[in-house]
Structures are given as C-alpha cells and as structure tokens.
C-alpha cells in the first residue's frame, strides 16, 4: 500500500515534471530580422534559421556535407544524368492539413520558377519539367546534366509550402507562411520577434522537445551574450569570436560550433582597363598573397577561432584541393616579385564594408603588405555604398564575405565563370569555363573532385582573388539544453533539441 | 578718423582686465591648464610618443598595461598610450578647424543680419532657426555621412552644424550695440556701414564669440569622437579617440584598458574646455569695477 502510494506520488511528480518540460518554450536570439518568410522570396541567413523550424525541405545535409533524406526518402539519377527521381515520405501533411504529395512538389517547384519576385529562379532553372509518377514519386527532368541540383534542394529551393495556402494568400503568403515543418507560424512583430508553435501532426513529432519557439531580434552580439548569461535567452546565434572564451568559461553555458561553408577573400579587380597595377602584373598579385600571413590574420582578428586557408571552398568539402596547401608568408620572395615588375611601391586600395571585423582584417593586411613594399590605402564605406561599388566593379581590392554553398559549383562558377553573377572583377579564362562546365555536368563524385582540383590549380595560378579565411559558426546556449548540432550551413536544426530531463 | 574716440568700449586696458578676471577664477585656470596640456601633447606627439601610432605588433595583441606599454596594447598590438597622444591631434584639430569654420561663416552672417535687419535678417534668421531645429549631432552625422568618411569632412560637418549658434549670438549682440550712442554718432558723422561694422560693432562682439568658441570647442571635440565612433571620422589606421572607443567596445571585459584611456582623454579635454568656457563667461558677465 505504502509503496504503492509512494509510487503513484512519484509518478505524479514525474508527470508534472514532464508536462512542464514539454510545455517549454525555446527563446532564440537572432542577429538580424529575417526578410520575407516565404522560401521562394527569403534572402537572409536569419530567415534560413527560422525556416529550419518552419519549413521542411526535400533533402538535407549532415555534418560532413553528405545529402541525407528529409521529405524525400530516396533518390536516383538516370544514366544520362538528366532525370532525378525522388521517392517522397508518406504520411506528411502541411500545417493547414493539406497532404504532402507528388502534386504538391510539382506545384512548389513551378511556383518558385514562376513567381515574379522569386529568388529561387536561377537555382531551379535547370529543371525543365516535373513529372508526377504516382502520389509519392516525382521525376525532375533536366535539359542537361546538373550535378549541383540535390544540394540546391537542401536549402530554400527544396522547402515545400502548402500549395492551397499559397494560392489563397497570394502576395500575402509571407505574412503567414504555411509549410510542413515541426513548428507552425503564429505571429511576427517586425524588428522584434517571430513566434512559432509546435505542429502536432508533424511526421517526426517525437523528436521535437519544445512546444513553442520565440525568435528575438537582437542585432548587438554583446547584448545577445549578456541576455544569454542572464538566462533570458536559451540559444544565441553568431557569438563573436572574441566572446568565445567568455561562453566557454561560464559553466551554465555551452558553446556549439561548426566550421562554415563561407569564405572571406580579397577580391582583386583584374579588368585590363581598371588601371590597377594588380591587373597588369600577375606577379604583384602573387607578391600580395606571399606578403600575407593568414594564420596571423586569423589569430589577431579572430583569436584563431576561424580557419585560415588559401582556397574558396571550405576544407570540410571533399572538393577542397589537397594538392594546394596554404603557402607560408615569404616577404623576401614578395619583394623580389615586386622588383621584377619594376613598379615602385605599388599602390593598393582596399574597399570594404565598414564593420569592425573587416576593418581589423584590412588594417592587418595594410601592415603586412606594407612590409613587402606595397603602399596600401583603406577605403571603408557604409554598407549600401560599398555594395553599390562592388556590384559596379568599381574597386581595386574588395574584402568579400561569401556565405558559401554546399556544392562547389555555386561558389566557383558564380565568382569565376565568365557568366557568373559574382564575377565582378572582370576575370575571364576560357579553360576554366570549360572545366567548370564539365564539373557541373558530372554527377560521379571522383570525376568531379578531379575536375575541381584542376579548377583550383588555375585559380591559384591566376589569383583573381586571395582567399583569407573560412569563418566558423558559434552558437551559445544554456548548458542544460540537449541535442544542439550545428552543421557547416550554420543553421539551428530543432529536431532533437530538448530541455534536460 | 575719430573712430578711436567714438568707440571707447574696447581698449587694450579693458582686455587686460578681462584676462585678469579670467585668471582670478580657479576653475578657469584649471580648464586652461588641461587645454594647454593636451595642446602640448598634440604638438609634441612625434617626440613624446614611445611608439609609432600605426605600427602593429602581432605578438603583443591586447596586452595589459606593462612597463613596455604603460596603457597596454590594442587589438592590433599597437601602443594605446601612443595612440591616445596622437589622438589629441585629431581631436584638437577637429575642434579648432570646425570652430573656425563656424566662426568664419557665422560671424559675418550674424553681423549682417543684426546690423541691416529687414528682409536680409529675416532670411538669415529663418535659415538659422531651421538649422537649430535639427539637433546638433544629428545634423553633423547627416552631413558627415553625406560628405563621406574622413577627418576633413567630419570637421566641415561639425563646423556647419555649429555655425547657427554663432549667427544667433552675434546677431543678438549687434542688435543691442547698434543703438548705442557711439554707433549713432558714427553714423551721424557719415561713416559707411562697412566701416561702422568693422571698427565699432565687431570689436564689441569679439569677447562673447571667444567665450562661445571655447564652449563650442568642447562640443566639437565630442562630436568628432562621436563621428569617429560611428565610423564617419578619422579613417583607419590613423588614431582618433572615438574610433579607438568603437573598437574597444568589443573588448570591454577582456581588455578594459583599450576603452578606459581614450574615454578618459575625451572626458578630460571636454571638461577642460567647459571649465575654461565657463570661466570666460563668468568673467565676461562680471560688472566692471
């Protein structure tokens, strides 16, 4: 009897504890206010963090950048690499109750390809037709092979929204998005907060440890950190590299990190008519690279928290070339190279968006290149002016911060392909164009790796840009929260995240 | 010309007694001492600063104050003491040039508006009111952002923003002086307006303008620091107290010396100019013995 009562009390206590745990709300501090909460329109990193909880995608990545199932459980290419067949997960519904099926995938792809303001048009342009085979099988038909397609589907282009809700809401869809993710949209206060609540019919509801999520917009990293320390936030994104020790030193907090896909690089204008000595003398570009000590830049500017590197692709990627290790600083060689060109104290001007981190990197470069004999001027500009100049190709050197993509094509073709949208420095190389095109059509990984190795070879010879470092993602969280895993895309995946006990 | 007889208001002896009154005030003397101290720092910076203000030392980044670096080093391994000393140059230069711009533009406009009155006065005064309606720092930030980030543009922006105070001050002074007997007498003697303004009115507005200039120096130095803090002033890597604070903000807990010294320098120099300005103002408003 007595033990029975004790047990029942214990059971009641446990139930209360469990219900309080499952009634928990997760408070996440974001650095920026996301733009439109519609996967077809979104263009911000903060928006992608919110989408992780709101909208499931067809496929996902894991920590090693492998493609893994999400809404699509299996996929296969045909022999000509022109058709991608996807098997869809069964028993999935959108937040409005609409069933997730092959028709809705077709509708989503077509919506993102045709919506006037869609930002996914170029990503999805290789898909010429979506064929519905049965309720849970679709085929994406391409005009020509396009290997990066699967990686495109791991981001917003692969996020499925309810076609019925999209049709009904029209242009207002982003104000109350309806997807199929673990959380559904509740409310949004501009520049303040975004609230989501748990979606009871989610296909993987058991993995969801919170009943609601509130994203708070807190632009200052110091403020995010202090609110995290005060227990006011559960998780804060983009902890400043200089604050990492503070988080590590606080026993109530935990640091979650991942190397990132992004790269910070010194983009060089190589246009013949730019009048820049760097454009006329490739030796000067080489000398500039040799004058820099990337490891020291990383150490001084970021406490060594990032990854110093000489390539555009993250070392995490299998396409990162192992044949081209980062060269050591060599001031004497740099001076010799400058001497061979006959240019006296070559004048350089570095344009950058006026942020403290880029400012620090620019000043370090100025000092290092100065020791080799370059005369470096700094031109910090307010963000919109800087971007305007960047897009117009009106710069000699520009500190570019590229967020990176899972597939190398999206970085290398975009910056160095003759028709790339970020090819703003006038770089043209026919041989490189050919290699990039081949790599884009090649779905066999080993062959692609060999092709991108050649691409890196050309880029490190021509030096149209000098990659400096790959930033890492740092999330601070309460130590009691379990299951936080940050992948190279830097997003907060909510499945598996739960309060302790 | 009988100008000297007609204008007894401003003579050498009167100036001397004004100076004595200023020096008899302890706060003014302290203010003057502080200002002279910073002027000396700025002028002799190349000789007294222990290091090169822009030379980075990668091996001693954010080091606490030590025998080698009395005020520690910053995020790029530069000596903070050296940068505080060189920062005095940017601050004082910004203050001096901005106030000069404000006076050179404001003084003549104020004289013209006050002396001639009528529609000239209406136009100048209404424009002054419009400029004054906009908060000083907001106006300076807007102008600096428009002109582009550099110390030179920051000076121009601050100068233009400080100008309306001088127009209004001078106009007010002129309005009271122009009806004095000696001005009426000069006019009666057939002196031309230009001569009256230059030889009778101007000497009588110089003192309040000097007082105002001292106080405006404090405001201008603070504004330069604010603009530099926002990235609209002195371009890196040159030293400026405001931009030093901007960078130091990130390391408030790790490296407090990066923010304490430039912050203290700004507070002290602004205090110095304010004490001096107050002292001058009190001396000016004391009745003649």
UniProtKB/TrEMBL annotation, chain A:
<dbReference type="InterPro" id="IPR039424">
    <property type="entry name" value="SBP_5"/>
</dbReference>
<dbReference type="GO" id="GO:1904680">
    <property type="term" value="F:peptide transmembrane transporter activity"/>
</dbReference>
<dbReference type="Pfam" id="PF00496">
    <property type="entry name" value="SBP_bac_5"/>
</dbReference>
<protein>
    <submittedName>
        <fullName>Extracellular solute-binding protein, family 5</fullName>
    </submittedName>
</protein>
<comment type="similarity">
    <text>Belongs to the bacterial solute-binding protein 5 family.</text>
</comment>
<dbReference type="GO" id="GO:0030288">
    <property type="term" value="C:outer membrane-bounded periplasmic space"/>
</dbReference>
<dbReference type="InterPro" id="IPR030678">
    <property type="entry name" value="Peptide/Ni-bd"/>
</dbReference>
<dbReference type="GO" id="GO:0015833">
    <property type="term" value="P:peptide transport"/>
</dbReference>
<feature type="signal peptide">
    <location>
        <begin position="1"/>
        <end position="23"/>
    </location>
</feature>
<feature type="domain" description="Solute-binding protein family 5">
    <location>
        <begin position="66"/>
        <end position="422"/>
    </location>
</feature>
<keyword id="KW-0732">Signal</keyword>
<dbReference type="GO" id="GO:0043190">
    <property type="term" value="C:ATP-binding cassette (ABC) transporter complex"/>
</dbReference>
<dbReference type="InterPro" id="IPR000914">
    <property type="entry name" value="SBP_5_dom"/>
</dbReference>
TrEMBL record, chain B:
<feature type="transmembrane region" description="Helical">
    <location>
        <begin position="259"/>
        <end position="277"/>
    </location>
</feature>
<keyword id="KW-0812">Transmembrane</keyword>
<keyword id="KW-0813">Transport</keyword>
<keyword id="KW-1003">Cell membrane</keyword>
<dbReference type="GO" id="GO:0005886">
    <property type="term" value="C:plasma membrane"/>
</dbReference>
<protein>
    <submittedName>
        <fullName>Binding-protein-dependent transport systems inner membrane component</fullName>
    </submittedName>
</protein>
<feature type="domain" description="ABC transmembrane type-1">
    <location>
        <begin position="88"/>
        <end position="277"/>
    </location>
</feature>
<dbReference type="GO" id="GO:0055085">
    <property type="term" value="P:transmembrane transport"/>
</dbReference>
<feature type="transmembrane region" description="Helical">
    <location>
        <begin position="154"/>
        <end position="170"/>
    </location>
</feature>
<dbReference type="InterPro" id="IPR035906">
    <property type="entry name" value="MetI-like_sf"/>
</dbReference>
<feature type="transmembrane region" description="Helical">
    <location>
        <begin position="28"/>
        <end position="49"/>
    </location>
</feature>
<keyword id="KW-0472">Membrane</keyword>
<dbReference type="InterPro" id="IPR000515">
    <property type="entry name" value="MetI-like"/>
</dbReference>
<dbReference type="InterPro" id="IPR025966">
    <property type="entry name" value="OppC_N"/>
</dbReference>
<dbReference type="Pfam" id="PF12911">
    <property type="entry name" value="OppC_N"/>
</dbReference>
<comment type="similarity">
    <text>Belongs to the binding-protein-dependent transport system permease family.</text>
</comment>
<keyword id="KW-1133">Transmembrane helix</keyword>
<dbReference type="InterPro" id="IPR050366">
    <property type="entry name" value="BP-dependent_transpt_permease"/>
</dbReference>
<dbReference type="Pfam" id="PF00528">
    <property type="entry name" value="BPD_transp_1"/>
</dbReference>
<feature type="transmembrane region" description="Helical">
    <location>
        <begin position="92"/>
        <end position="118"/>
    </location>
</feature>
<feature type="transmembrane region" description="Helical">
    <location>
        <begin position="201"/>
        <end position="223"/>
    </location>
</feature>
<feature type="transmembrane region" description="Helical">
    <location>
        <begin position="130"/>
        <end position="148"/>
    </location>
</feature>
